[in-house]
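Sample A.
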Amino acid sequence: MRITRKDIKGQNGKVLVVGGSREYVGAPALAAIAALRTGVDIVTVCAPERVAWQINSYSPDLMTRKFLGEELAPTHAKEIAALSEHYDVVLLGPGLGEKKEFVLKLLRDIKKPFVIDADALKVIALDVPTNSILTPNPKEFRILYENTVKKEFDELDMEPNIRAMQEKLGNNIMLLKGPEDIIFTKHRRHTNKTGHNSMTRGGTGDILAGICAGFLAQSGNLFDSAKEAAYINGRLGEFMYKQKSYGYTAFDMVEELWRFIK
């Protein structure tokens, strides 16, 4: 994937992160910082007011749009959709909680490419998003499968499940996280083998989603962005294990991400 740097502020990608809730403050922050580390110029987080103020304290480089209340709600969707017009990619889901009406409204009203992660994956079927990277873990993949295919999930063999989802993908990309990440479209497939079993800790998926969004904002290429993000996130996990064994945190990871963005 080739990314050509430009000399004018804002032309190297702008990412809008939508997420956060009373219980989950760190997830959107990790995703947003990861997106910044990929080289984009601007990242803004849309979050409930108290969550947004906390995110501001994590990094002076992050901008936030603060919404009244303890949770994001459908009443906020119109303002977020209008704001998205000034961004290249919308990352939806980190720390959001399961908010079906809100998620569906954003997916309907926003015409930008999406990266869809975490709880946002649990409330949709594949007939809703377009031009998106979806980043489920195995549990989220099963819920997405059941919402989409309406058939029994094969517990013992993932291949029938993947093939059934490929038929429903449209122009979306699936990045199925696991011991080996599987990135697939309707007609293409790639297996990423980087990574380490220490990456089961919370927050590593938020970092991956942020890397996807950052690469997509700069390149516009869904498949290559997902593939490269999985590779780099896995290499980062391998590096962190060598440095700190099983004692590192997701915040440690995101601080070292710059080493792998070249």
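Sample B, a different protein:
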Amino acid sequence: MGKGNAIVGQSGGPTSVINSSLAGIVEGCAGIADIDRVLGMRWGIEGFMADQLVDLSAQSAETLAGLRRTPSSVLGSSRHKLQDDDFPRILSRLEKYDIHTMFMIGGNDTMDTIHRVTAYAAREGYELRGIGVPKTVDNDLYATDHTPGYPSAARYTALSVQQAGRLARDMQKVDQFTIYQSIGRDSGWLAAAGALARHRDEDGPHLVYLPERAFDRERFVDDVADAHRRFGYVSIVCGEGIKYADGTPVSASETTDRFANVEFGAMGGASVGMRLHRMITDRFGWRGEFQVTESLPMCAIDRAVETDLNEAYDAGREAARLAGEGRTGVMVTFVRETGDPYRISLGTAPLEDVAVRAKPMPDDMINADGNFPTPAFFDYLRPLVGELPEYADLRVDPVA
């Protein structure tokens, strides 16, 4: 392959560390002989088709270094679903800008995009290397131990639930329950992280409901009643994607995005947190509150994990190295070598596999009742999130 340019796109929801991967790609490409310039897609593949590009190679060293600690998606993102008539337009832009290497940072849908583009280019006889860099706070990408962005979002969730749990405990004479709703359409990796900082039985959360298990309304209110009897209040975490046994979302919404993914609580529908709130108040008449952080865990750089920032950067560098070797059609993966001490190595997985497969939480990480993670999950997560605070408590002894 002769010398040409590379293009990078960010797609889907952001993370606290996605820009660190971008910096890794740009800096990694600087030493590759057959890559001249690295260009960036403004607004993902959608912007690329509209000639909205930025010259990443022209950015200063200070800017690239700053990206490693900059939240959200600096290039701008998109959730455009590729249509058949998009491919000729994409190919024309590849030819126009002499692009022969494409990097995309994203999740399953993003890996599907780059896989389809490279396959189309090959059919048309156009040389194009395609490398994917993983990204999603949902942590549901196939073939990788975890995804960049998940550890930081998990830490955000663990700290939020820990602190909200103490608030719920101390306000139990006002609010008898609290519900924290986590993002996570089909997997409970992020919702389960809410229980990581729980040190004692009475600490919140008491109940965690995950999309991997069918939701049963009567079982739920029984769980709530039991926790309230034991602790005097109830702290609950739920994944936004929990469903009944027939597959119906607990959320009232049936709105879908361009990839046919359900958008929970959209278009005026009640969020799952609101639905659970209503179930409890209807049954017990208690006052309570719900907390919905939505996209905040995706961009909270102040709670980013140092290991996550570094691994995201390393994934970008590795993608550039693979391109330099002439590799194509793969996504960078993390392989856990040991958990204690924590150590990973970098590997690859075929884009075509990642695009069509997801990674739910395994059965051994969810308890038999389906309402709390097991110690196996905490062993998996703890090295990723790092040490969490443990707060002081008063001794409550009878006063003579």
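Observation for Sample B: The domain at 4-148+303-356 is CATH 3.40.50.450 (Rossmann fold).
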